[in-house]
Amino acid sequence: MIRKGFLAVAFALCIAWPAFAVDPGKASGTVTIDGTTMPLAVSVQTRKVNLFDDTKKDLVVVVTDKVLGATKPDDEVELSMRARRGDFVVLAMRIDGNKLVNVTLNYKGLSGLVILPGSWFQYTSAKPAEGTLKLADRDFDGHKYAVDVEFAAARYVAPRQTAAPTPATAPAATAPPASPPAAAPATTSNIDRKQATGLLVQALMQRDEHRALEIIKLGVDPNGRDQSGIPVLNWAVMMCQPAAVKALVDAKADLKYERAPGMTILMEAGACPEAARVLRLAGAR
Fold first, then answer.
1. Check whether domain 193-281 has CATH 1.25.40.20, yes or no
2. Which whole number is the average pLDDT over 215-237?
3. Is 143 helix (H, G, I), strand (E, B) or coil?
């Protein structure tokens, strides 16, 4: 009798909690973009600084259709460039604790940034870096997306470098050491800054501060303006998004712009004390 009761409980638990059958480092499912469905087969994990707290790090799960090779999962610029070349499709989940913050998509058929709010998705997780992600057909900014994938992300391991073969005989004289190669120029994001401005304004209007900060950190023009000529900083102030205000100020947004004579950015922040404090510390008057 006791054994039957135990089996019944075990069976009930199996039904209540989904079993994740994907091997570590693998994914099983698809992403559909504008009617084109692509299989997802690989998943790796990394960490990125939290958008609000520099002392914390968020988990980022990167799911692709092919292995990343030498490209690290936290190298957003390289991932974006390779995805646009058609090397692979990239789906990156930012997870803060147990909450899915947003999902970034990169693919050759897309331009600019595609950062979808986490609230649009059905996200389940048995433990960190393992779970499922689903999105029913969703239209956004002229494109249609759908996701249905199970993943078990492993830590990224760079491919081994194959050593050059040793020559049979050593040369008679040792050549002087070659001068080190010139340092490569700093890499900057290749996003379309004009399009990113529109996405930032949209995120601010929707009060999606997580998404707004993600776009700002990837290189949006801090002095970009919407179609009516209103700067993104003013939008961040009007929608009372102090973290976005600080991010734009740190990116050197213009603090002297006046939407009307005498209407300074600090005056506009009158209804948002936290934003006003940020602006005042930055020197706004």
1. yes
2. 89
3. strand
